[in-house]
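Re: beginner question about structure tokens

> Can someone show what the tokenized structure looks like for a real chain? I only ever see the sequence side.

Sure, here's an example I had lying around. Input first:
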Amino acid sequence: MASEEFRAAIPALRQSYQQSDFAEIPAFMPDDVFHSTLRELEELFHHQSHRREVHIEQSGGTPRRFNTLARDVIAQGSSVIPAVFASPAMRAALEEIVGEKVLPVPYEPEQYIATRLHETSDVHGWHWDDYTWALVWIFKMPDEGHGGSLEYVKGVPWEPENPRVEEYVATGPVIRRHPAAGSAYLLKAGSALHRVSPLSCAAERMMVCFSFASTTDLEDERSHESIQALF
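And the corresponding structure tokens:
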């Protein structure tokens, strides 16, 4: 389950990932699949989303302001999103990019979730993910300059008892990316401190995040306080 453009781009995506722990996948899915999934998400956000305005202790008290869709809501309301997560062909394509085994995360609530930022000052504050990779499918994106960009510092450890967010951001470098709607991006999110920058106006950023694990991830116990607080 991947577009021809995605398959053709894998050598360039591998190089990008090796250099920056990030790869933007253009035309992630065929247009008809993208638009049908967008309609499913719009319906779910309209009827079943929850507003979150909280600060997350495990990432240094950084803010979250957005609407959310939990994994089980998406599983019941979308045909495509669960299939993407479960697709062996998708994981095989990701393995070609990262050069190691890519596994489904065992914790169901974190397998795939969706967020929508749409109010001024909405933000997904600095944090790390519980598992190694995030595959983020972008459905709506503000104009660059209106916020909603991915910002990250790669290769920094997460210590929940002492997250040192301000130190890592100040030391940097902070890398900024503004992926297009219809694309997806792969981020080594377990070792990249990252955020979605605040919206400067009433624009809209809608995405689905799939989480995938490395072999090493499955050797350790993981806590899930952050995802439990939001979804």
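Each token stands for a local structural state, so reading them left to right follows the chain. The domain at 4-230 is CATH 2.60.120.620 (Jelly Rolls).
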